[in-house]
Amino acid sequence: MDPKTHRRTYARSGLGALALAAVALPLTSFASSHREAPFIAGAPKVDGTDFYMFRSYEPGRSNYVTFIANYNPLQDAYGGPNFFTLDPKALYEVKVDNDGDAREDLTFQFRFTNTYKNITVNANGQNVAVPLINVGAVDATGANLNLTQSYTIDLVRGNARSGNRAPVTNATLGGETFLKPADNIGNKSIANYPAYAANFIYSVAIPGCATPGRVFVGQRKDGFVVNLGEIFDLVNLNPVGPRDGAPNTIADKNVTSLALEVPISCLVKGADPVIGAWTTASERQGRVLNPDPDRGDSGDGVRIHGGPWTQVSRLGMPLVNEVVIGLPDKNRFNGSEPRNDAQFATYVTNPSLPVLLNALFGSAAQVPGSPRNDLVSIFLTGVKGLNQPLKVQPSEMLRLNTAIAPTAPAAQNDLGVLGGDLAGFPNGRRPYDDVVDIALRATMGALCGAVGNCGTMTKDPNGGLPYTDGARAAGPDAGNAHATGMVSPNDFYLDGFPYLLDPFAGSPNGAPVLP
User: What is the model's pTM?
Assistant: First the structure.
């Protein structure tokens, strides 16, 4: 599919004036949510790493919204023998607010089940269980897999715990069960991984929705692009250097994606085209480890879980918990709900990151005045005229105006709204959007005065310098990828569902990475 064939031109109308104003984001930059809080760092299976929401730009699918919630960060392709299943004792959710009240109106709940076959081999007359997850070539039947993972999806209308619940059904195979493909073990186990994984893209029947959607859950190449090591080494880089001057530190990492495509008509409410969304993961409040280690339980049978669900991970706008929320409140933020975000307001009105950057770079990084009312406006409400709901309760989440047409891959700008592409971040978020560079430029006051104000500051104190972490993606898809400078040729995306690339194989050589 050649995206150039499907290039479209969209009128900007009155929104053109917002192309710069709309990116006055809070200090949500540097590294996406990869082990960002003390507790979740020790629980990677329920660690949300990135959340995407955008109008589908696959040809013929523009009347849909795609959600992608990534979990289990920084996967090494060769990470056997267990690889990277999701937690069958956890609840993974995508929550949608369609009336601006900071409360979920629609919740898509994913629950996973592990099935162990306990395959054995005859070793000198003894049937001995094998230690590997596969004993031969893997295909869609899963015949040679020692462990398979399936999942169900429920749609809850209203409160996620007490609302009206109904199953999302598998319109491809029938029933209420979906299968997750095995991770990309290696080329001998799975010779053609893209073809294999394609078997696990399902059509779904959504309760109360006349038009089916699609779902895929499985391993993908991590689509986030960031100069990670230097950022956390006291920003050991040139913040006004070239955008392609540093490598993507995580160019060789995989991640597990929950990708769901839903018709717009099933998401919006009334005349308001704006929706907000975020993803969460929850675990049971109580847990007993190894209740009877001598019983011979296998798999997850050695654990007892009970009590109510307790939220341990939350992700809407990218990068919030890394560099906005202070260290004492990181766990609290992961367990919080948008309607209670007033408790974190000081981190937005009086952000610490500009102060730290000023200490590192002096006059090259002046501190905008506080309170940062411009950031409060964008961070908590969306931009009026772009992606602010008709009625809005201030709260942190990713917001999307579903009335703005998607931009075809060939015309996408990785600076999103800042680059004149109103279908990009912060109006939702697409895989290609360079959220690090966009937010960096706003963090130090580049847009003070454009939306709200920055205390006494009325203009960019740094002369409009193009802040960057030096790492960027090669392009929106293979047909429009350009590996200049230190850009990895691996860093591009699919131009159709599920949009993130197939994962790197663990064998024979792993992922190539530019020096």
Answer: 0.88
Find out whether 359 and 5 touch, Cβ atoms under 8 Å.
no
Question: How many whole angstroms separate alpha carbon 265 and alpha carbon 464?
Answer: 40
In angstroms, rounded to a whole number, what is the distance separating the alpha carbons of residues 437 and 451?
19
What contacts 508, CB < 8 A, 6 or more positions away?
Answer: 186, 187, 188
For the segment 273-327, what is each residue's pLDDT rounded down to a tens digit? 999 999 999 999 887 776 665 554 445 555 677 889 999 888 888 866 666 676 7
Report residue 292 as tokens.
């009877």
Q: How many helices (H) and strands (E) does the chain have?
A: 9, 15
Q: Which residue has the tokens 């009625």?
A: 391
Query: What is the tens place of the pLDDT at every residue in 360-371?
Result: 776 555 666 667
User: HEC states along 236-281?
Assistant: CCCCCCCCCCCCCCCCCEEEEEEEEEEEHHHCCECCECEEEEEEEE
Closest CA to 20 of 330, 383, 264: 383
DSSP-assigned beta bridge partners for residue 400: 275
* Beta-sheet strands, E only, within 77-163: 90-97, 106-116, 120-123, 126-129, 147-157
Element (DSSP H or E) covering residue 333: helix 330-334
Phi-psi region of 368 (alpha: psi -120 to 50; beta: other; left: phi over 0): beta
Report d(CA 106, CA 47) in Å as an integer: 22
